[in-house]
Write a structure and sequence with these properties.
Largest sheet of chain A: 7 strands, mixed
GO molecular function, one term (chain A): GPI-anchor transamidase activity
Pathway (chain A): Glycolipid biosynthesis; glycosylphosphatidylinositol-anchor biosynthesis
Number of helices of chain A: 12
Radius of gyration of chain A: 28 Å
Helix content of chain A: 25-40%
CATH architecture of one domain in chain A: 3-Layer(aba) Sandwich
GO biological process, one term (chain A): attachment of GPI anchor to protein
Distance between the termini of chain A: 73 Å
Number of strands of chain B: 18
Largest interface: A-B, 129 and 161 residues
Number of helices of chain B: 23
Number of strands of chain A: 14
Strand order of the largest sheet of chain B: 4-3-2-1-5-7-6-18
Structural class of chain B: alpha/beta
Family (chain A): Belongs to the peptidase C13 family.
CATH class of one domain in chain A: Alpha Beta
Structural class of chain A: alpha/beta
Strand content of chain B: 5-15%
Strand content of chain A: 15-25%
Oligomer: heterodimer
CATH topology of one domain in chain A: Rossmann fold
Radius of gyration of chain B: 38 Å
Shape of chain A: globular
Order of helices and strands of chain A: EHEHEEEHEEEEHEHEEEHHHEHHHH
Protein name (chain A): GPI-anchor transamidase
């Protein structure tokens, strides 16, 4: 039986990652808006996020799902918790009825490495994998009802890894066979992210045909763009399994996975080490990278900065003697009862008080309505807009009808 | 005449109609097409935003000033007192000492130091403003009357000192916003009462004397009292009160301006009353801090804490999620756990046989699942935190009890400690991500109350295994209506339920979440100790992770054989205390408090003669020794108002900066990305944010804490909501050719008959001699204009009928 391995999001937050002791940086909030400070990223990131996307449905695209699951396997093994991974998988290959090896996904026919693993949290699945959702995850613009677990809650101390795998072409990438992500959209989304301070550094990896064209419009600072193929080149598949009757993985991701399988979180391998393993002989396409912050080199970028994370755990309690119950001073017990009685009610922002202390409720409703006033007016505005549009269309239709009737009538 | 067959319009009229319809078509279709393809953009106040960005970029733009009033009580008699002209130098000295203890220059701190000298029968005041504050005032006055040429008066170097002596003028002083004369020295009895009061009693007495004017955010009163009983020997003693008071008791033989007393004022006021936590450091300060951190790990830890971003969402929301995790509330063990335990015990069994330090066998009998009375816990401990911090952030609370949440790391038996220990290196992997800690699965206050009308405290979520309400509040039973205690009970209920409304934009901005986990280890792993980096047990058997929250181990042994057990009161208290300590740390408030607490250790460690080296003080000559500092804690919340004020200062500054930055980002983005839409609702949010930011800046200048923080929060949450409005990015980039291509199939068929008619007209016009057409047309129009009736039109038709061979051909 195919077990449903799409574990619902097991919400545990395992911890954000290492903060260097000297993360003492200029106030990040100030740094977001000003162009001058954007040159160099801060000395150390404080958390990691990964957005891993496969854009292809259907059994024949098995390899694209395996590509994404391989990277998922890598980042999870290196310590990024599921709460910090946004996984977008349009189809369930592991539990596909055509899969003779249920609940498993393999990167090659030796079937040694099951990249599906034991515990997978898919955030966007099936038809939820859309360009709009992908761009919303990047830019952080969500409808209110979207739960936290489906949002990327990164800030300007986050390192973000984005991995895209699927079918693509010159300056576009197909999503679910029904729509396309255009290079300009991607560039705009990244520009918005950097403008809002949603990442400190970004590593964007694209595994698709003509991948370099998808990222060529990106100008957002501090992003590293890696593409597996150039314009006019294919991103080829690899390792077909006779029992599945399919190609298992794409060549670029196969090599990437092979590299990371020999690495652990303590590794100091650099991005350049990864690049050295890419060969044209195996991939039959030229990979390329581009760093929008030109002062950085692949030799400077540590891979675990993007693919791994370790929580910064502190055990210090740092309590003073006053923090004991009754707060340490000797006559506190004597004062406890009087204090509880005489302490002024804690000063509250009166506008936050829906119900004033005298407990009158009618006024509170008024406040509530006032506070909710914006949404009401917004609704009214949108209605008037729609009304305007529809009357325009109606008028046009009427004009067309009348004119046809008149001309027809006149000429008969 | 044309009754039975359809009337044939005159040619000129037909032409007119055709052209009219063509024109109408073009006029109607083009706007519709434009409306459909244009990017809807509400107008943005670009100039305002740019001006605000510049204004906020100026130094100390969002920094709330603190006013420290040093209330010198003169004992009279033989004890020395200040003379009138000694007050201003004293105020200046105090101000500079506070700055020195802060480690900042006068330009970097908005600080007002006032001295009130209370002598029997006379009261005089003097005040000193820091350079940064005056620079800000100058800027704002320049801005206000820019063009009028009014010159702002330049202040003296290091601050402006103003003097005002007032004799029996307490009323005038009280009418101003500052603390006036309390006439504490008016009678000997009153004076003795004040001077002999203990710290805590003095705190209450001051609150009573000052009434409302003393206990306001940003206004601190530091009493300078002569120590008539020489409690501290030759050293001045200090205390920070539960409210916004402090007291320094200087040796009665000297003056309050003695270097030691002034230094103690600085030591008290700098961390407690004048601190600006999380300040952006400039380059010099940053490098100095790095150097200090390299030598001292404590300083490094403090800096790291201060540099951490606050776990508060842009809409000023913070959700505290309390979870009680029962690792294994069952007597039965999965086989692999048993094997691991057997291995662990087997390896240590040999050497520990004699000592008897074995894992307690009784543990296997007491396997009960723990439950807690969270409602009472919240009412007693968490509720006051919510109230204390309500101005700085809206705290919401949820709780849950989880079962079967094994840690990913097992403890190993340590015979020395007679406990299972988890080494520090394993702690990052202690919490399993499969624990359902995440409250967002079951709904958060923001999503529960997304329409802004339902207060957090009323939003109750029932879902799955998280059965508790959001922000559940326990109330005493209400007496029946018209019963004697009814009114009192209602007032109590109203005070207990703060009814925190989410801000207007809260729906689209997720709250920040902090987890507070009480972890009951499996019976076979009890007691469980977490070890610190030095191999010692963690002080409170807990750890915390910045931005995530904290976890504490509950080593309570439940009664044997029971299925369920309650967490004991004292353990809950311990948890509350630890949660508060860690909350303070996570909110960045610990540094100031730690400094006050550590002062005593330093003082105790060094002999009185030796210098008590304090961070920030860098005198060549040893600073004068000072006595102990007591720190009273607010009993109800554990968070003193001055701590909440410090958070308010930090949050307001950060909010102002972030709001301006977000608005600026949005404006830039709209310029950069031409396809980005700005719906009218978002435009309204931006305008509101701009207005709120202006209000916030004005309130900051007036050092009105409440208004400033409220306006700053509004500005930020509205700006962020505008930026993160999903409607902004609904429209993706579309190539220009698509804009035509998509609408062509709609417009073209409708245009075909019209174009056909046009073509026909043109063709006919070409075929016919132009003059004839013109004559025909003008004559027809002229006849119609001359006021002829329908009948004449019929005549006209008959007249024109022979002249329409083209029409006959065409049909």
């Amino acid at each position: 039986m195919a077990r449903s391995r799409y574990a619902s999001r097991l919400g545990g937050h395992l911890l954000f990652c290492l903060v260097g002791l000297l993360a003492a940086q200029p106030q990040p909030l100030l740094a977001t808006g000003t162009h001058e400070i954007k040159g160099a990223p801060s000395s150390r990131h404080s958390n990691n996020w990964a957005v891993l996307v496969s854009t292809s449905r259907f059994w024949l695209n098995y390899r694209h799902i395996v590509n994404t699951m391989s990277i998922y396997h890598v980042v999870k093994r290196l310590g990024i918790p599921d709460s910090n991974i946004i996984l977008m998988i349009p189809d369930d290959m592991a539990c596909n009825p055509r899969n003779p090896l249920p609940a498993q996904l393999f990167n090659n026919e030796s079937r040694k490495l099951d990249v599906y693993g034991q515990n997978v949290e898919v955030d966007y699945r099936g038809y939820e994998v859309t360009v709009a959702n992908f761009l919303q995850v990047l830019t952080g613009r969500h409808a209110p009802e979207v739960p936290l677990s489906r949002r990327m809650l990164s800030d300007n101390s986050s390192n973000v890894l984005v991995y895209l795998s699927g079918h693509g072409g010159d300056e576009f990438m197909k999503f679910n066979d029904v729509e396309e992500l255009l290079a300009q959209d991607l560039a705009d989304a990244l520009a918005q992210m950097s403008e809002k301070g949603r990442y400190r550094e970004m590593l964007l990896i694209v595994e698709t045909c003509q991948a370099a064209t998808l990222v060529q419009r990106v100008t957002a600072p501090n992003s590293i763009l890696v593409a597996c193929s150039q314009k006019g080149q294919q991103s080829l598949s690899f390792k077909s399994d006779p029992e599945l009757g399919l190609s298992l993985i794409d060549r670029f991701t196969y090599q990437t996975l092979a590299f990371f399988e020999n690495m652990d979180i303590s590794s100091t391998a650099k991005l350049s080490d990864l690049f050295k393993t890419y060969s044209y002989d195996l991939m039959e396409s030229h990979f390329s990278y581009r760093m929008t912050n030109t002062s950085r080199k692949p030799e400077d970028v540590q891979l675990t900065d993007f693919f791994g994370a370790v929580a910064d755990v502190r055990t210090g309690s740092q309590r003073g003697p006053q923090d004991h119950m009754l707060h340490g001073d000797q006559d506190a017990r004597r004062f406890l009862m009087t204090a509880l009685r005489t302490d002024s009610p804690d000063s509250l922002d009166s506008s936050l008080l829906l119900r004033p202390p005298d407990g009158q409720l009618p006024g509170s409703l008024l406040v509530a309505r006032e506070m909710a006033g914006n949404s009401m007016s917004g609704v009214g505005r949108s209605w008037s807009l729609a009304l305007g549009r529809w009357t325009g269309l109606g008028a046009l239709a009427a004009i067309v009808c009348i004119s046809i009737a008149l001309i027809g009538g006149g000429s008969s | 005449m044309a009754a039975e067959e359809r009337p044939v319009l005159p040619q000129s009229r037909r032409r007119l109609y055709a052209i009219g319809f063509l024109a109408a078509y073009v006029l109607a279709v083009l706007p519709i097409w434009y409306e459909a393809v244009r990017v809807p953009r509400a107008p943005l106040p670009h100039d305002d935003i740019q001006a605000l960005e510049e204004e906020v970029a100026a130094p100390l733009a969002g920094a709330l000033a603190s006013t420290v009033t040093v209330y010198v009580l003169c004992a009279g008699g033989t004890y020395p007192c200040f003379k009138y002209n000694e007050l201003s130098p004293y105020a200046e000295a105090v101000g500079e000492e506070i700055l020195r203890q802060l480690g900042k220059t006068s330009e970097q701190v908005p600080l007002v130091v006032r001295v009130v000298h209370d002598e029997k029968g006379a009261c005089s005041t003097s005040s000193w403003d820091s350079e940064g504050l005056m620079a800000r005032q100058r800027r704002s006055s320049q801005r206000r009357d820019s063009g009028s040429g009014k010159k702002a008066k330049a202040g003296a170097k290091g601050g402006r000192v103003s003097n005002s002596g007032s004799y029996y003028d307490a009323a005038a002083a009280a009418s101003s916003s500052y603390v006036g004369c309390l006439s504490l020295a008016s009678s000997q009895q009153r004076l003795t009462g004040v001077l002999s009061a203990a710290d805590r009693a003095l705190d209450d007495l001051a609150a009573k004397e000052l009434g409302g004017q003393g206990d306001r955010p940003g206004h601190y009163v530091l009493f300078m009292l002569p120590d008539l009983w020489r409690l501290g020997g030759d050293l001045p003693l200090g205390a920070v009160g539960r409210r916004r008071f402090g007291v320094v008791r200087y040796p009665a033989g000297g003056l309050p301006s003695a270097p030691a007393a002034v230094r103690l004022v600085g030591l008290l006021a700098a961390p407690a009353f004048a601190s600006h936590l999380g300040d952006p450091l400039d380059e010099a300060a940053l490098s100095a801090a790095r150097a200090a951190a390299a030598s001292d790990p404590a300083v490094a830890a403090q800096l790291a804490d201060e540099a951490l971003p606050l776990p508060v969402s842009p809409a000023a929301q913070l959700h505290l999620s309390f979870s009680l995790c029962n690792a294994h509330p069952s007597p039965h063990y999965p086989s692999h756990t048993l094997r691991a335990a057997a291995q662990a015990s087997g390896s240590t069994a040999k050497q520990d046989q004699d000592s008897g330090a074995r894992p307690p066998a009784a543990a296997s009998g007491s396997f009960a699942a723990f439950a807690w009375d969270f409602a009472a816990f919240e009412a007693q401990f968490v509720g006051p935190w919510k109230n204390a911090l309500s101005a700085a952030a809206r705290l919401t609370v949820s709780s849950q009890v989880l079962y079967f949440t094994p840690a990913r790391v097992n403890g190993s038996w340590d015979p020395q400690r007679a406990a299972f220990t988890v080494p520090h290196a394993s702690l990052p992997f202690f919490v399993d991500s499969s624990w359902r800690l995440d409250p967002s699965r079951t709904g958060l206050p923001a999503s529960a109350a997304a329409d802004g009308a339902v207060p957090y405290d009323l939003a109750t979520i029932h879902s799955g295994d998280r059965s508790s309400a959001i922000g559940e509040v326990v109330l005493p039973p209400m007496p029946p209506a018209h019963a004697p205690g009814r009114a009192v009970a209602e007032a109590a209920a109203a005070a207990a339920l703060p009814r925190l409304l989410p801000p207007r934009a809260a729906g689209s901005l997720p709250p920040a979440v902090l987890h507070f986990v009480l972890f009951a280890p499996p019976p076979a792993q009890r007691p469980l100790l977490l070890l610190g980096p030095d191999g010692e047990a963690a002080p409170a058997n807990s750890f915390h992770v910045p931005g995530w929250g904290m976890l504490q181990v509950l080593n309570q042994v439940p009664p044997s054989g029971a299925m369920m057990a309650n967490v004991r009161e004292d353990n809950m208290e311990e948890f509350a205390r630890e949660a508060l300590t860690q909350l303070r740390l996570l909110l960045g408030l610990a540094a100031a408090r730690r400094r006050l607490i550590q002062h005593n250790e330093l003082h105790a460690a060094s002999s009185p003669a030796a210098s008590t080296t304090s961070k920030g003080s860098s005198n060549e000559d040893a600073p004068p020794p000072v006595g102990r500092i007591e720190l009273l804690t607010d009993l109800r919340s554990g968070l003193a108002p001055w701590e909440a004020d410090a958070l308010l200062r930090r949050r307001t500054g950060a909010d102002v900066a972030a709001a301006a930055a977000t608005l600026g980002s949005l404006a830039r983005l709209l310029r950069q990305v031409p396809t980005l839409a700005l719906p009218p609702a978002a435009g309204a949010l931006v305008r509101d944010a701009v207005a709120a930011l202006r209000r916030a800046l004005a309130a900051v200048e007036a050092s009105n804490y409440m208004d400033a923080s409220k306006a700053a929060q509004q500005a930020r949450s509205w700006a962020e909501a505008a930026f993160s409005d999903p409607a902004l990015s609904t429209r993706q980039n579309v190539p220009d050719t698509h804009l035509v291509g998509v609408y062509l199939p709609f417009c073209l068929p409708a245009a075909v008959p019209l174009l056909q008619a046009l073509l026909h007209e043109i063709r006919r016009r070409r075929r016919k001699p132009t003059a004839g057409v013109d004559a025909q047309g003008t004559s027809g129009v002229g006849q119609t204009l001359s006021g002829e009736m329908e009948a004449s039109e019929g005549e006209q038709l008959i007249h024109t009928e022979p002249n329409t061979p083209v029409k006959a051909n065409d049909s």
